[in-house]
Amino acid sequence: MKKALVCGAGGFIGGHLVNRLKAEGYWVRGVDIKENEYDNNNADEFILGDLRDPNVANAVVTADLDEIYQLAADMGGAGFVFTGTNDAAIMHNSVLCNLNILEAAKNEGVRRVFYSSSACMYPEYNQLDPDNPKCSEDSAYPAAPDSEYGWEKLFSERLFLAYQKNHGIEARIARFHNIFGPQGTWDGGREKAPAAVCRKVALANDGESIEIWGDGLQTRSFLIVDECVEGIRRLMNSEFSEPVNLGSEEMISLNDFAKMVIDISGKNLTINNIPGPLGVRGRNSDNRLIQEKLGWAPSTPLRAGVEKTYDWISEQIQQKQLKSSLVEM
Ligand code: NAD
Ligand code: GDD
Questions:
Q1: Options 3.30.870.10, 3.90.1150.10, 3.40.50.720, 3.30.360.10; which CATH number does 3-180+222-246 get?
Q2: Which residues lie below 8 Å from residue 261, measured CB to CB, with a gap of 6+?
Q3: Ligand 2 pocket: which of 128, 190, 220 to mutate (most atoms within 8 A of CB)
Q4: What is the reported pLDDT for 208?
Q5: 248: phi > 0 → left, psi -120 to 50 → alpha, else beta; which?
Q6: Coil, helix or strand for 31?
Q7: Could you tell me the distance, in angstroms and rounded to a whole number, from the CA of residue 254 to the centre of ligand 1?
Q8: Are 73 and 50 within 8 A, CB to CB?
Q9: pLDDT at 325
Q10: Is the ipTM of this structure higher than 0.90?
């Protein structure tokens, strides 16, 4: 039986990944600074610990592991990473987790290690035209990410590649492009646009408007978490050891995305574009390399993932409202 460690198992993608590994027959150890709030963590062993502490990394990385998945990071959507107020924490916290996990993997002789990088590492100058962003893997340099979060991801990619070069670690690095889906953060300030828009639509009544940050003409692509987990597993099983995009190529403007969610809800709502943290003007995954190296790329239509996510967020809102009405009684 293969053994894996999932760092960040208390989080969104980590929780889904644990379930996937369990379904494949793995023995799984999870570690996170917090429990998984949606109980989406079926690890055989879950350790509550802070990976900024090298002693925690040394305790969870054991020589019997076949694989490590490093997803622990201080992260969030535009309202968390693009305001500038969390920059020092993001860089400090995430880089310490990466350093400690890699050093422990080297010492224990665990070779295959996955790292979750981000499309945020791509240079801003290639993402100024919302209709024609460039995010091919070979466009990473000259580096000019628009956020410190993106710089940290780029540095950490290099850190994993350096451990690969000098210490025999087999790094598998995916650059995620805005992953969404059930069990993802949907309120509290760290939520990304897909969950935020679903929440706003679910809370609105007919005839009202929902707020969308910016002019709504900025573009993104969004990838449902099931496809993300599929891509992680395929990459881990491959011999490809350079960074590769893991995202959807179905690019959409934020206003059109909001219209899609409104349509799914069946409500009669309008859009109110307001100032807010924006990030890059346009972004889309470029899937030529993943298709070439893995013979696979994500294919689920955006709308199918959004329908599932909208239903789940609507349910979460209802449960929260029910709980608060019971407390008031
Ligand atoms: P998430 O916030 O749900 O999961 C990250 C987890 O890491 C959290 O549960 C958090 O508690 C944990 N963590 C943070 N600091 C820790 C520490 N010091 N010790 C132990 N655990 C710690 O986010 P996610 O969406 O599941 O993202 C997983 C990874 O993918 C992250 O590295 C993130 O940067 C990367 N990523 C995600 C997206 C996306 O759209 N979701 C896009 C690009 C990259
Ligand atoms: N979060 C959020 N909430 N974004 C909104 C909202 C809202 O209510 N309304 C409009 N937006 C806009 C943002 O201004 C931004 O232009 C766009 O929607 C996308 O925002 P996010 O989904 O929050 O982030 P992102 O795509 O810019 O970056 C995310 O994806 C990266 C990977 O592609 C972040 O999660 C990064 O941390 C991640 O690495």
A1: 3.40.50.720
A2: 197, 198, 201, 306, 310
A3: 220
A4: 98
A5: beta
A6: strand
A7: 23
A8: no
A9: 81
A10: yes
Q: Cβ neighbours of residue 216 under 8 Å, at least 6 residues apart?
A: 253, 254, 255, 258, 271, 273
38 is known as an active-site residue:
no
CA distance 282 to 20: 32
Q: Count Cβ neighbours within 10 Å for each residue of 30-51 and write b for 16 or more, e otherwise.
A: bbbbeebeeebbbbeebeebbb
- Provide block-wise average pLDDT over 10 residues at a time, the chain (329 residues): 98 97 98 89 94 98 98 97 96 98 98 98 98 98 98 98 98 98 97 98 98 98 98 98 98 98 98 98 98 98 98 96 80
- Counting ligands in written order, which one lies closest to the CA of residue 223? 1
The answer to whether residues 150 and 120 touch, using CB atoms and an 8 Å cutoff, is yes
For residues 140 and 122, the answer to whether their CB atoms sit within 8 Å is yes
**Proximal ligand: closest to the CA of 210:** 2
How many Cα atoms within 13 Å fall on the side-chain side of residue 2?
14
Cα–Cα dist 19/158, whole Å: 29
Residue nearest atom 14 of ligand 2, based on CA coordinates: 278
Task: Give the residue from 105, 118, 242, 237 showing the smallest Cα distance to 173.
Answer: 242
**89/97 Cα distance (integer angstroms):** 12
Which residue(s) pair with 179 in the sheet? 223
CA distance 226 to 234: 12
- Cα–Cα distance between 48 and 302 in angstroms, integer? 34
Burial class (CB in 10 A: 0-12, 13-18, 19+), 188: exposed
- Which letter does DSSP use for residue 304 in this model? H
| The total number of residues written for the chain in this structure | 329
Encoded tokens for 122:
């791509």
Per-residue pLDDT tens for 158-176?
999 999 999 999 999 999 9
